[in-house]
Amino acid sequence: MRRNALRTPVAVITGFLGSGKTTLLNRLLQRPEMAGAAVIINEFGEIGLDHLLIATPSENTVLLSSGCLCCTVRGDLVETLADLYRKRRDGVVPAFDRVIVETTGLADPAPIIQTLVTDPELAPLFTLDSVVTLVDAVNGAQQLDAHPESVKQAALADRVLITKTDIAAAAEVRALENRLARMNPGAELHTVVRGEVEPAALFGAGVSDARAPAEKVKRWLRDAEFAHAESEAAHHHHHGGHDVNRHDEHIRAFCVRLDTPVSGAGLEMWLNMLAALRGAKLLRVKGLLDVDGTPVVIHAVQTLIHEPVELARWPDEDRRSRLVFITRDMAREEIEATLPMLTLRPPAGERARTLDPETYAQFLAAAKSFR
Questions:
Q1: Residue 213 has what DSSP assignment?
Q2: Residue range 198-255, pLDDT digits in tens
Q3: 159-163 β-sheet, strand order
Q4: SS3 251
Q5: pTM value?
Q6: Phi/psi at 88 (nearest 5 deg)?
Q7: Contact indicator for 333, 249 with CB cutoff of 8 Å
């Protein structure tokens, strides 16, 4: 059996203070299809209360109250998930088929994602399913303006839920939808009233299987066309003084297409260079690449590079490579200057890390834009 089939999916639910995470969890956990969920709730402060409001068997609800999940209790998260796994294995807690982690309103999701994907104890047992971010339709615009945490939560999401739409002005909801869609063109947007949402809309966001259905791959990259159109408009009207892909002062979203295949060695070097030199500014990159004729899905969050996935087949007739970026204080031109690295190839018969002098000179030329 493939390793992915053995790992328990984990969904991270985040969102700024007051965005409705507890209400959403209560609604979700009342659904019969969520009966097998275990819940980990993080609270910041000496006294935790939210866990008293969650409607799920207490054996499968764990409260972390020793600090913010994005920093001081990452070790606690590792131990809690490992302990849940052991207790399920030994029959101490009811069987669960997925885990939901609710963060505090001030959490940065990136370290949580990194812990789930890279921790040597957790990675063989659990797999990151999706990052779901809630944004309050009444206060969301002001929070995005004032709080960098809320911007990053939205930028790293696979699914964005706009809550409290029943008490917000319709025009404000539409404006917030447009803002979030431009900020994170790869995320699915849903409007939610009192936490009512179909569980299927929130989970299964990633592409981690070579046999992933074509529709899932296309949905994963479904907004690449939108991002491409927006970025092209910004690119061609750059001198007009208005960049339609620049949001919240520092955040940009854009799409790049390549008409020629890339090499596996070049892709590995390029991803490692981006993570090492600009990881803090590269909030997210998603792509479907033609690697010497093979369709390959890539996904990176800051310094974390998910393992590329070779697909069994192309999801559609378009064979061009497509890359969608969300960056902070990083211009499209900086990325474009590095793209020649994707075609670099080591000498035949040698390891990918071995470069001849000419190829090494090309590598340095591509990396210069980041110095």
A1: -
A2: 998 888 776 666 667 777 777 777 644 444 444 444 444 444 443 434 445 678 888 8
A3: 61-64, 37-42, 98-102, 8-15, 126-136, 159-163, 188-191
A4: strand
A5: 0.77
A6: -65, -45
A7: no
